[in-house]
Amino acid sequence: MSDTSVSARIRHASRVAPDHGSAREPTATGSAGRLKVRKTYKLYVGGSFPRSESGRSYPVRAAGGSLLAYAARASRKDLRDAVVAARAAATVWSRASAYNRGQVLYRIAEMIEGRREQFVTEVSAAENITADSAALQVDAAIDRWVHYAGWADKFAQVAGATNPVSGPYVSFSSPEPTGVVGVFAPQDSSLLGLVSVLAPVLTTGNAAVLIASQDHPLPAVCLAEGLATSDLPPGAVNILTGHTAELAPWMAAHRDINAVDLTGVVPESRAALQRAAADNLKRTYTPGDTDWFADPPTARLSAFVEVKTVWHSQGV
Amino acid sequence: MSSQRTSRAHAAGSPGSDAPAPFPPGIDPFIYAPAPESRETARLRTSYQIFVDGRFRDGEGESIKSINPADEEPLAEVSEAGASDVDDAVAAARRAFDGPWSAMPAAQRGKYLFRIARGIQERARELAVLETLDNGKPIKEARDFDIPTAAAHFFYYAGWADKLGHAGLGPDPRPLGVAGQVIPWNFPLLMAAWKIAPALATGNTVVLKPAETTPLTALVLAEIVADADLPPGVVNILPGGPSVGEAVVSHPGIDKVAFTGSTEVGKLIQRATAGTPKRLSLELGGKAANIVFDDAPLDQAVEGIVTGIFFNQGQVCCAGSRLLVQESIAEEVVAALRRRLTTLRIGDPLDKNTDVGAINSPAQLAKIRELAESGEADGATPWSPPCRIPERGYWFPPTIFTGVSPAHRIAREEIFGPVLSVLTFRTPAEAVEKANNTPYGLSAGIWTEKGSRILSVAAQLRAGVVWANTFNRFDPAAPFGGYKESGYGREGGRHGLEAYLDV
Amino acid sequence: MTEVMSVPSAPPLSPQKKPGAIRKGTSAMPVADLSRDTASLRRFLFGLPGVDQAGAESRAAGLATRTIKTTAKAWAIATAISMIDLTTLEGADTPATVRSLCARAMRPDLSYPDTPMVAAVCVYPDLVATAAEALRGSPVRVASVATAFPSGRASLATKLADVREAVAAGANEIDMVMDRGAFLAGRYAEVYDEILAVKTECGPTHLKVILETGELGTLDNVRRASWLALLAGGDFIKTSTGKISPAATPPVALVMLQAAKNFAEMTGQARGVKLAGGIRTTKEAVRYLVMVNEVAGAAWLTRDLFRFGASSLLNDLLLQWHKLTTGAYSGPDYVAVD
Fold first, then answer.
1. Which of A16, A80, A266, B489 has minimal CB crowding within 10 Å?
2. Residue B71 in contact with residue B393, Cβ under 8 Å?
3. What's the complex ipTM?
């Protein structure tokens, strides 16, 4: 290797470098001249933050093309590990009382509120919107989380029933969590949409393996940092960043996932995934376009529960 | 006892010794040293004011002393509301309802309730000690049941505020307006939570009168409400006696009346609101039957009987005050009950090991005594475990009456004290008949290992709450309320919303 | 004191009727008339009242709210120490580890020489002789596990030989394991006969029957196994081998104490209860003493009728004693390791 080509490479690298500074720290909050400690964005699996086992990462860019950060690029093995963690957590989380689940989720809302400025910064940078717009989204996300926290100890009363059957029998039906839900977060709404697909899965007692938006994953990792310090059992939520198209077929075919939410998958790609999901009869949820700011229907709650009907004889 | 045991010297553990002496110790039996909760935690003040339109102020009524029933010592002076205070409170509640409260998005109402729930949790220990001082109940109960359940009620109803369209009451159920609420002294803070939480969640505003003998925790709740920045007038708290309650209930500005208390007063209120558009819900007295079948899980049944009648000194509307025990096991159950009662600790309510506290007032104590005496006069046999009753304060020892017949007053009238009447039955049909043979219908207990029998008997009991192989279990998600003269309307659960909505 | 521990004669209690109990005459020992075939045993055991799990857990939790402080705590700590069977049951045990344990058993805390001795040392049969030698002249008993501990999966002949050797080597107490396989398969007579055979082999040596409650699945089974062991002559019923989890838990202890109490009411004989496995802290030990006090009764608050099978519990009791006497929290440097 000649000296000139090496130095040429170095010169070339340094030409790319300058944008990193201002793009990575979109709003300067430190004192002028102070060198920031940059955040590393890793996966969130089983309550910890590992890098991808593949060692890969990918650049996350702002709308103009400038680099925001490198995020971990999850592999199918990371997905596999996340499902194992989710399955273990699903047992624990589903056995928590509904009141307890509501309490845990409500406290997460408190945590997001406490980190509001940080999220506004992340969302603004991720989606290239003004801080005011981002603030609207963050506030709505917090309120959305509170909304779902309040469903935990009520959904059974809305979705359940005592059944007026004939004969000397008592029959009642109750919704139970389906288990492990694979969730594709919306590609565009990096926090509000994310929260709107994740919270209903949790409040009904399921564990989640969530694939974040491919182009706007950073708010999801920020959320993960808050979840890690909450009272959620480790593995109840797992957040993978990476290429949606690469991970989707593995998610759809995984036999230890009970249901998938295909929100973040483009409509053209959904059919193939539903076919793959048929292998273990996963429940698949395929919503249309959603206005994330609107009040959500209960469909996202009923999509991930199984209704159990119990009969008991009656007689002295 | 073995010789090893008696040969140990007595040293550490001698009552009165300050520092534990060196080994070896060894006094039997196991004597629990006093374990008092600190009274200072209650942050008791010398005086308390009424809470109207978001502010504390002196009431126009007399000021009274709230007494600690455990030692008859005054706790604090409490300003009482007068007629003009009631007018002001109702007007403030109306303004709040017509103004900010109705205009507010439902989710925001919910977030206020979450704040109040958190506020109760944060001041939980303070509220528990204050409740014990004001009511006489053991600190263990206030700490482990009253206060946490009150917070839980606010948490539960907070979540309903923005989900009313899913409650099965129509797509957009509307609130009634201003609710006038009168609550009793047996679970002061919890009863306030049972009333205020669903009323606010559904969009109403409230004027609440706590019981005359137990106003203190409701007034601390008013502080929590104010600290939560609730708009003024949404919650108003008016301490006072029966005349204040009457004024609230009959005020023309009230759209909804909710009352928990005696059946006698409940009937008066129903008469007073007759012909008016006021909606009414009542939670009144009871004379619950706790039915123990011969295949009951015996040890747990004994626990359930004890909890049923001695929890809160029996001052509970849903107390299991009649034990209906299958005759074939009656002797054994009563013997086991008596043994179990000897481990109940009666005494200073602030001691963490106390199981049974004081009766709330001299008036209540007189009622209990009168009925107990009638039981003996009627020929039933009372029994109480040996216990040391403090000299001062209002106390009644846990008492079991055997040989009770359904015609006795102690089998029919609500005693509201730690007195259990034991009757027997031979068949399930007879048990059901005896259980239902009362104008009351609040609760009942069933003890049997046989599931089909539980469900069959539960279906036949005319009672709003049936506990099987358990007793006195409460949850904000579970509706509670009575049949017949125990009242109407339900508190708790999805059903608890209905009383406060125009449906 | 080298006398063999005998079952103390608790004050005779008048026999009470138990629901479902086979009533044979009015003798204080109706059990003697029970035919010991599986069918009769099953009828008796399944005639005992059931245990409601939620209710049992609720009672246990309620008892755990007792606040034991100051003088009561001092008494409880001292009493708990005196009730410990200090245990080492490791494959890697050597004579040295056993001798070290025995030294601690006799003198738990050098800074407080008046600390009571523990009740017993518990070891594997081949180390009984070492323990007996180390404890010669002291009131601390030598307990030995036996009968193919911990699994109990061996022939009866092997199990009895195990017991024989332990007794011959100087064991004062034998901790046998119940055959859980036979119990769960419903072969109650076989379980009964085996315990009876072991008790016979023990002679005057005190017998504890380990139920291995963590394998029994339900509290109803814990109650039935307790009765079966007591009927067959066990002097103590014991929760666990300590080798599996869950071991001793409050609801299990509640049911076993209730069974011992009911057995005493029926027969006039007080038998003991030993809780083993997973009890590491003073707080837990004190809670169990409260449970003994309020469920079985004050008569059971003696090492003759109640034991803790433990190892690390001792040090936590000593640390708590230090705190009570000095007012400051202590640390592991101030208590001996095994």
1. A16
2. yes
3. 0.90
